[in-house]
Amino acid sequence: MNEFEFKRNELLAAKVIKGLASRNMTGYYAPSKEEALRMALELIPLGSSVTMGGGESVHAIGLPDALKQGDYNFIDRDDYEDKRAAMLAAYDADVFLSSANAMTEDGVLINIDGNANRVSAIAQGPKKVVFVVGMNKVCDDVDGAMKRARNVAAPINVQRFGLNTPCAKTGSCADCKSADTICCQFLMTRYSRHEGRIHVILVNDALGF
To answer: Looking at the domain assignment, is residue 208 inside a domain?
Structure first.
């Protein structure tokens, strides 16, 4: 990333943070992954129960490893034989970690899910939700964000999971009803009724899909 791209992202992040504030959500700007990790840990009190859905961006800043090494109760789905039990534990967690498939310049978050464990936890349950979002995911408006989620994030994720959908073969959404579709539930987070619940760390880097 050159200095001009870096500055552009910095300026855009300020606009996104203002938009989030108007929606009763709190935004932060991190100029690097290292700073994003520091900010995330500041938002998670010691002793907290913490869990997450997928979230390649969360892994990209090293947050799960930091939580496992620290004084936290990190609920790792990979440690559970019963994956449903791990998913249900998320609803009573102190903190839920996530990224977004896309978001708008004025602070609307867009997420698509197959099993709905991630979008349902974002919507209701955990006391606090911390998003880690690369500036590559910021789009002009809801239409652009939805197109990004369906035509960029979804095809990459189905390929990553080895699923058999039209977008895995063509790279773009076919609005399919395939048995393997991961586009089962769509969540648009446009406002938080609960002040202090949703926090979004915008990272000046290309993170996740």
So the answer is: no
